[in-house]
Structures are given as C-alpha cells and as structure tokens.
Amino acid sequence: MGDTKIAPDVEKNGAVISNGLSEETAIDVSGTDADKKGKKDEKKKDEEKPEMVPFGQYYRYATKLDGLFIVIAIFFAAIKGFAWPSIMIVFGLMINDLVDTNADQIIGEKMPLFAYIYIGMGFLNIAAGYLSTTLMLLSAERQSNKVRNEYFRAIMRQEIGWFDETSSGELTTRLTSDINKIKDGMSDKVAMAVQWIVAFLSGFIIAFCYEWRLSLVIMSTSPLLAISGFLFSKIMAEFTEKEQSAYAAAGGIAEEVIGAMRTVVSFGAEHHESKRYNKKLESSEVAGKRNGLFSGLSIGFTMLIMFCTYGLAFWYGAKLCGEGKADPGKILIAFFNILIGSFAMGHAAPHFQTMAEGRGAAYTVFKTIDRESKINYEKGEGKSPSSCTGRIEFRNVNFCYPSRKDVEIMKDFNLTLLPGKTHALVGPSGCGKSTAVGLIERFYDADEGEVFLDGENVKDLNLQWLRNQIGLVGQEPVLFATTIEENIRYGRDDVTMEEIEAACKKAFAHDFIMELPDKYQTLCGERGSKLSGGQKQRVAIARALVRNPKILLLDEATSALDNKSEDIVQRALEAAAEGRTTLVIAHRLSTIKNADTISAIEQHKVAEEGTHDELLAKEGLYHTLVMYQQQVQEEGGDDLAALPSYEDVITQRKSSVKRLKSIQSVSEKEKDLEVAIEDPEEKKKKELQEMAGFLEIMQENNAYENACIVVGAFGAAVNGATMPVFAVLFSEVIQALAKVLPDPLKPVDPDFEPDYSETNKWAIFFVITGVVSGLANFLQIHFMSLSGLSFTTRMRQKAFKALLRKNMGFFDLPENSIGALTTRLSEDAAAIKGATGVRIGSIIQNVVGLGVGIGIAFYASWRLSLLTLACIPFVAAAGSVQMMQLAGTMKTMTRLYEQAGQTAAEAVENMRTVCSLCIERLFLKKYADCLVEPSRKFKRQAHLTGLSMGLAEAVIFFTYAAVFTYGAYLMKLEEGHSGKLTFTELMKVFSGIVFSAMTIGQTMSMLPDYGKAKASAFKLFKLIREPPVIDAYSKEGKKPDITGNLRFDNVKFNYPSRPEVPVLKGLSFSIEKGKTVALVGQSGCGKSTSVQLTERFYDSLDGIVTIDDVDVKEINVAHLRQQMGLVSQEPILFDYSIEENIKYGALHRKVTDDEVKRAAIAANINNFILTLPDGYDTRVGEKGTQLSGGQKQRIAIARALVRNPKILLLDEATSALDNESEKVVQEALDRAREGRTCLVIAHRLSTIQTADLICVIQEGVVVESGTHADLLARRGVYYNLNKSADKH
C-alpha cells in the first residue's frame, strides 16, 4: 500500500479534521437532537392508550392444576359472595312477621333459629375463605414463578443488538416490580373480586325475584354507575402505565449510578445523581396525583348516585306498599340486597384496579417473552459438524450496528483466517476490529455478505456449537460473583480440577490464587471487584484456555497486566495459540509481530496484509505505526507506549474509519485486593423480623403531607360515620313503612290514605347523605393519595440519597450487590404504601365507622352492646394472626428474592460474556433455584393467610349469632323490666354491628399490605438513618486552601469486608507540591488502594494520610475530593451527551463550553467529536456503550482535566488507548501534571520514567524508591521489571 495517496485535511470550526483518519463513530449520527427526540417520543407515548393483555392471555401459564385451583377458589369465593344476600331473605321474612303481628314476643321466639343460620354461615365462611384465598395464592405463586422464569429466559435468548437499545436497569426492574404486579393481579385479589361481584349479582337477582318493579326503578341508575366505573378503570390503567414507565426509568438510573459509585463519589456527583433520580420520580408522582384526583371524583360520584338510588328506592317502595303491590318484607329484601350489591361494587373496585395493573404490567413482560430473537440459541437449529479445523472467511461483508443503522462499520470487508495460524488485526481505535470478533461469535449478523467457518455460513451452524469452538478473552474482563474455580468452570462445565490448575498456571494465575486463604474457593465479588485488574484478566484467560477452543479470539487480552506478568502470559498465549486459529486484536504492536499474518484496517476494510516484515517493506500504515514505536525505544522507553499522534498519522496517510462498538458491561477498578473472605456464620445467622411502628412512619411526614392527611382524615371520618348513621335511620324506616300500611288489627277502611310523609323525609335524607358521602370520599381519596404519593416519593429519594452517602465498604458486602440494592429500592419503597396515604384514610374511615356503630349500639342497649364488645377482640385477633404470620417470613423472603434479582442483574449486565461462554442455561437454572426457597415459604404462608382470612369473616357471623340469641332473650323479658328490648332497638344494635363489621372486614383485607409496609419502612429507615463514617454530605471538617503536599506515613489497611487480609502493611511515601510520584509493582500489591485512601473512599486502620500536613480525616470530605481528579483504567461514562459527561468532572461549579473544548483538545478527543452530526450533544449510551474503549478513556481524561484539580490521580489512565492516540494523550497528561501534585499508577514503565520519584511496592510496602535512572542503577526490583518490559 505504499502508493496510497495522501488526502487533504478539511478545516471546520477552527479545528483540523481529516477526511481520512477519524474515529469510528459509535454514536447516534442521525442528526437529530437526542433530547428533543426523547421528549417527542415521550409525548407520543403519553398520547398512546395503555395496553393490557386479555384475561385469557393473562393466565397463559396456568396448568390444569392451576386451573383446578382457580375454579375451586372462584366457586368458594362465589359462595362467600352469596352468603350475605341470602341472609337478607331470612331477615326480610322476619320483618314481615313483625309488621303483621306487631308482637315482640313472637319475634323473640324466632330469633334462635336466625342465630343458628348465622352459625352455619360462619363455618361455611371458614371453609370458603380458606379455600378461595389459599388456592388463589398458590396458583398465583406458581404462575408468577413461571412468568419470572419465562421472562428471564426470554431476556437471555435475545440477540446482543436488542440489549444495545434496551436498558439493563429497566429489565431488572421489570423483573421484580412488574412481575409482582402480575402476581398480585392473579392472587387472592381475584377471589375477593369474584366474591364481591357475586354479592353484587346475587343481590340484584334476589332483589328482582322478590320485587321486580322496585328493582327496575333502582336499576335505572345503573348506567351512571357503569359510566363512572368505566372511567375509573380507564383512567387508572392509563396513569398506572405512566407510573410504571417512570419507575422503570428511575430504576435504570439507580442501577447505573450504584454500578459506578466510585466514579460518582470521586467527582462529588452525589447531589447531581440524586437530582437526576428525583427528576424521573417527579413524572411518576404527577401521574399518581392525577390518578388520585380522578379516583376520588369517580368514587365520590358513585357514592352520590348510590345514595340517591336508596332515596328513590324508599320513596317508590312506600308507594308500592301503599298501593298493596308489595309488603315491607319484600321491599327490605330488595333494598338490602341492592345495598349489599352496591357496596360490593365499591369493595370490588380496588381489586379490579390491582388486576388492571397486573394486566398492564403483563403486556410489557409478555411482549418481551413473545419477541422472536434474531439470533436464538434456544432453537437448536443448524449444523453441528463432528470436527472443526478453524478456517474463517469474511466475504464482502457490510455491517452497521442495529442501534445506529446509518453508521457504516464494515464495507466490502474481506478477510481469511487460515486453520492453525495466528492472524492479527491492527488499526486505529474504532476501525472495526472488535466488530469482526462480534460477527465471528454471531453476536450480530452481517447486513450483507457472509462469514464462513470451514466453508459453512455461520448462520447455518448451530449457535451453541459455534460458540463452543471459540475462546474469547476481551480487554475488559468480566468475572461473576462466585468463586475463582466456578468462574473458570464456566468455560467448560466438565472440566477437572487438574485442568483448571493447568490453565491457571499457563495464565500465570496459579501462584497468586494459591496465596489466598481460600485459594480456588475465594469469592471474586460482583464483577470480580475483589480482584485487581490484572488478576481478573489472568482468571479470564484461564477460563478461555479450559475450553480448549479450536478458535482463539484475543481482544487486547494482556492490556491489564504488569510487565512481568505480561511477558509470561504473552508466551502462554502464544503457546496456547499453537494448532488453533487465533485472531489477535492489539493496539500494542509488540504483542503481534510474531503473527503469521497481520491485517491493517482502514476505510472499513482490510487495506494491507502480510507478515510483520512484509508490511514493513510496504511502508504503509503498519510501517508508520512501527516507526513510532522504534522512535520511542530509541528515546529510552519501552515499545508498549510507542504511539503516533492522531495528527501525525493524518499527515502521512488517508484513513476513514467509523465504528460502533457496544460494550455490554464496564466495571470500575475498585481495588487491588485479591481475596474475598466470607463469614459463614453471617450467612447462617437468622435475624428476627423488625418492623417500624405506625407512629414512627407518621413522624416522617412533612408539613404538606400532614396537611393533606388532615383534610383526607376529615373526609375519611365523615365517610366512616355515614354508614352507621344510615343504619340507625334504616331502623326508623321500618317503622315508616309500617305507617304506610293499614293497621291489620283494625277493620278495613275503604277510605284509608297511606301516610307518605315519613318515607318522603327519609328519601330526602338519603340524597343529602349521598352528597355528603360523595364529597367525603373525594376529600379522603384525593388528599390521602397526595399525601401517600409525596411520602413514598420522598422515601425513594431519601433512600437513594442515603445509598449515595454510604461508604465504599457498604457496597463491598455481598448482600449489597447492584441487583439487591435496586430491588430493595424499588420494592421496599413501593411496599411502604401499605401504611401511608389511601391506607391511612381507609383505616380512619373504618375506625370511625366501628366507633360510631358501637356508640349507636350502646345507645340502643348497653347490655347487648357489651356482648358485642366482648366479641370484637376475637375479630381483631383473627386478623392479627394473619399479620404476625406474614411478618414472620417477610424479611427472609425479601432477602431470597433479592438473591434472585442479583443473579438476573449479573447475567443481563454481562450478556456478551454469558453468550460467548454459552452459559445462558446455567444462569437460567441459577435463577430458578433462587426462586425455590421464597416460593416454598410463600406457599406455606398462603395456608395461614387463607385460614386467618376465613376465620376473620366467620367470627363476624358468630358475633351476629350471639347478638340475636341474647337479643331474643331480652325481648322475652316482661314489660317494665329494665333490660326489656324492643325489636327496633335490637335492629339498631344489629345494624350498628353489621356496618361496623363491614369496616372490620375491609381493614382485615389490608393487613397483609400493612405488615409488608411496616417491615419495608424499618429497612428504609435503617438505610436512611445510619450515618456513614466518611460522610460526603457533612458540612463538618476543615476546608484549607490545599496546595498539594501528599504524605503516607506507615499506613496499614485492610478492606472492611475482609479484615483477615492485610493489604497495606506500613506504606510510606510523600509527594511534594507540583511533583509526580509513580507507584509500580505487580497486580494486587496495593497501588490502587493508595488512590482510594487518598480519595477517602476508605480510612486507614493505622498510620496517617496527610495533605499539606493535615490529616485527611480532618478535612471536609467534599472539599477534599474537589481538589482531586481521578482517571482510572476502566472508565465509566453515563447516559448523557459527551458535553455533559465532560462537565461531570466539575459539577461543583459552572463549566463553560470553552473549558469543555480545551479539555477535549488536551485529551485528543475534540476532532473526533466534531465529526459527529450532533457534536458535543451526541449521547454516549448506557455505560458509554456507543463508544469504543479508547474513545471512552479520552472522554474520561477530559472529564478529569476540566476539573482543574490540585492533585491528579492517574490509575493506568492510558491503558485502553490505541497506538495512534496514546502518545498524544500521554503528552497531554504530562502537560496536565505541570504545577500539580500527581500520583501515577502504571504497569507500563515508559509512562512514568519522567516522574520525580518512583516507588516500587511489594506486599503493601515500598521496597525501593528513586528516579528512573537511580533505580536502574541499583539493579533491584525496578530494574527487573524494566528488563522484563525490554524483552517485549
């Protein structure tokens, strides 16, 4: 390619932009402003109607046994629903006897029979309540577990392109909260809905059978009730969908932030991220408030219509009685059953709401389940040849990433990899090298052209077979939260321990593993956080080697290793490549000069190809890169850091490369610690369930919420008093009906005129009561929902803010994984609704109703009322049994479900690694296993819940039996006896109890949610109230004008989660203002730990860390961190625009656009940004997935430079850069170091040769220090490290 023409540069916006060598763009180049587009999409979504699955599809995972459970449960729920209307028939017949005879004595004789009927109904309710509740709960648990597994299975089978456009945080949030909604929508709420619907239907049917004329009149108002009910459900479903979407988005932010805590904390972005999370919650709160408003209006309107209907019923019923077309008994049977039916509608509405929410959640979940993956491992289709030689061919391949179809990555790409040979790809960062790996692995399929393996199109091969022939080692290794042995075993499930050890020896990992207390059983931590970067990489290499693959793909496989380790691992990889088709992707050309064939890529295709010597002779792109390396070597550096600048290459060659590289998961380098010691006693420890008290929860309300509660409580109190007062007036209505009829003991008077004055009066009163009840319901529901939404939103915000405030040691604990914390944040905040807002209103309503009802009963007959009071504790006890049983297992079940959430989150966030290792089914099994224990406990709880629910209602019937039995006795007393009771007085006691019992029943149904709320409130309050030792929010501490003198004096440290493992054993070094000190040493020696102690992520156990002779523990934490700029090896970017990501470095002040541009220029990223259609407004995607590794690193460097820090912390800051960029960026960093105190951590010794002081660390102490020349002259540890680098 020596005859390649040099293309002229184009000047744009004052910056030189090559129409040749530009970064491959991994960003949105549609030319549309991302924010505006997002708002348009949001608006369009808001205008769309909420979707719900049909009932048939809702139960798509029900088995025949589930169907049997549902049928039996519905049958017994229907029996429960029929119980009350049927009892009213007996009651109506009794009324007729009263009116006909006017003899209390006769009624008294019939009371025992009435009592026996109630006792029988009580026992029937125990059986019906147990079976209907328990069977529905069991069925819901079985089905929801299937949905969980199927949803997770559907996620796991999706192609990688789908994950590029879908937030992993949103997926894991839906996996918990949405499926819980589905479960609630098909649980005992269904049985309760059926119970009340049957009560509604049977009530109206019985009413029609006994007095059809009156029933028709009453039914004339049904359309109004139907309209209000329809509007209620429609509006509820719409706003529920909006709430779910907002909560899912907030969950995605929470997962993104918790997964990048060190980055967030180091830049002092806690308040910024808290505001971002809060903003997402605001939209959900707005939707919830509108929901509460329309719910209050709908229910208030419903109650108004109901009471007006009652007035109409008494008015017309009196007319029928007066005309001799009906008798009071039939009128009251019809009226009472319509009353029961009307109340049943109100009781059924919340359960239908829950079912609607479940169906709405199911729509999104089932849509994912039903999605057909474009590359599906489950199909099992395709050929599975008996052998594989390893010949790979790319024929005229064109490719664009699915998420950015307008960005060309490959164009007429042709490449052949011969069997058993090593082939290397070189080229600028973003040219498409890693894309080739993705196409070989079939993470993606080519848009045009074909990829062949041994002459077979990879699309025609069995996907799992294909991937089992491949061993992949990437630049950013992913380890899972299990032991080292298990992580390696993921490479091949039938691997022996001897093979594992052999692979680790080849990967230079065996020695450090054997030094760990638990050796191969050492836990790696989430994302391998308990190991250093080099250690993670070596374990990942061992995992690839145990696969014994025919094809080896090495994508910067040694980038994270120190010089000593890299030399050995590189030789091990070369040995492993023998006899295998090996594709090596490298920025450091020293690692691929022995390759059989080297291909240089430019302009989306292979530009030149040959051996190392052949390409040098061509004097093309490869020659240019090598010349830079030799130049650096002549200057005394190692070839690993020899990098041509972006502009230098532009002046010599034409290259146009655009790229879209999606990286599934990026984890921060947390520490050099090598071990994870788990305390087995802590795992086995059983803690007692703790719950927050009601008053403790109420004390958390603010003034606005308390004001809403006061208004809502007033409405609830009025609402609660409405029914008992109505009961008293009903007793009087019986007498009013009697006045309408002629006296049966007197001769028939042909001129008799019925007296309608009394019934007309009560009819008017019903209308007045309806107005009061409607207004009270509106006040109660609307204002209580305002209070509850505000409270739960604040709790979410406080909990998230508290998480941002936690020390790093908190996130090191296994129980505080990303998945577990996001699950806890979502579910606990949602569960706390059970003790706030609308629930408070219902409790106040029920308590007032019970109190007024009992008061009425005492007024009528204190003797009979005392018996009533004696029965009420039994009713309360039945409900408390349920709450205690629920509380007993609440914490354990929550913990176990968190474990399942963690497993799912770990898999979803690392899908490329999961797919490449073909361990999808393994994670499916792990997830299913995590659900076994909570499911078993839930099923056991279901029996107790069902029994307590049945008993709670049965006790009410037993209470009625006692009241009527004792009431009959009092009615039989002689006239003049002080305890003599009239039938009217008995009815007042009875009616007071009836309507009070209704409120008790409603309260009992809330106990499960209330128990969950108290348990969740305790956990949230504990999270919020526990102050951290290192508090970034604290105003305390000194705020000196820091100049930058840094000193470590005999510092000893071990990580809090592993106190048995010392990391620093007396580390001492100092850095004078404006000087640079470099720390070198093998992986895991404690270099990064010193950075974390400087940033005060942790505090030393002994010794002291000072800045300007002030102990860092005495300096205000936020002020301290504002003085520092951190650039780490594995950069974390956020789902912002490029400009916002750079400004993230200085959130404590206003950053100008000029500052952003200067920082970008210094980091050699400005020219690339200007080539993008949206420029600095281009979004980088979740975790920066729309950028290549080098592009992310340079933006991270710009982010640190814009901070203008007094102390610069560089932890392998240039490790991810390509050869063309590293030299310029290193020079930029060298300039940035001028006048600043700088602590550099490096494996590549060439990058720190100019440091004022180099400290060599071994086993947590400095073993030698000096300048580069001094240390070489000593011929000690540093000399050996440097010699190892020279061998490359």
Strand content: 5-15%
Proportion in helices: 55-70%
- How does the major sheet shape up? 6 strands, mixed
For the record, give the distance between the C-alpha atoms at the N and C termini, rounded to a whole number: 27 Å
Output the radius of gyration. Answer: 37 Å
Task: Specify the structural class.
Answer: alpha/beta
Query: Strand sequence of the main sheet, in spatial order?
Result: 8-9-10-5-11-12
Low-pLDDT runs: 1-49, 632-689, 885-892
Q: What best-fitting shape do the alpha-carbon axes yield?
A: elongated
Total of DSSP H or I helical runs spanning 4+ residues: 42
Please give the number of β-strands: 22
Average pLDDT: 77
Protein architecture, described:
The chain is 59% helix and 9% strand. By secondary structure, it is α/β, with parallel strands linked by helices. α26 (757-805) packs antiparallel against α28 (818-831) and α30 (862-909) runs parallel beside α33 (983-1025). The longest helix has 54 residues, at 104-157. It is elongated, with a radius of gyration of 37 Å.
Give me the secondary-structure topology.
Blueprint: E1 9-12, E2 15-18, H1 34-47, H2 55-58, H3 64-101, H4 104-157, H5 160-164, H6 168-185, H7 188-210, H8 212-219, H9 222-258, H10 261-266, H11 270-322, H12 328-370, E3 392-399, E4 410-417, E5 422-426, H13 433-440, E6 448-453, E7 456-457, H14 463-468, E8 470-473, H15 484-489, H16 497-506, H17 510-514, H18 533-545, E9 551-555, H19 563-577, E10 581-585, E11 597-602, E12 605-610, H20 612-618, H21 621-634, H22 646-652, H23 680-684, H24 694-698, H25 703-740, H26 757-805, H27 808-812, H28 818-831, H29 838-860, H30 862-909, H31 911-917, H32 920-971, H33 983-1025, E13 1046-1053, E14 1064-1071, E15 1076-1080, H34 1087-1094, E16 1102-1107, E17 1110-1111, H35 1117-1122, E18 1124-1127, H36 1138-1143, H37 1153-1162, H38 1166-1170, H39 1189-1201, E19 1207-1211, H40 1219-1233, E20 1237-1241, E21 1253-1258, E22 1261-1266, H41 1268-1274, H42 1277-1286
Helix pairs in contact: 3-4, 3-7, 3-12, 4-6, 4-7, 4-12, 4-32, 6-9, 6-12, 6-28, 6-30, 7-8, 7-12, 8-11, 8-12, 9-11, 9-12, 9-28, 11-12, 11-26, 16-18, 20-21, 25-26, 25-29, 25-33, 26-28, 26-29, 26-33, 28-30, 28-33, 29-30, 29-33, 30-32, 30-33, 32-33, 37-39, 39-40, 41-42
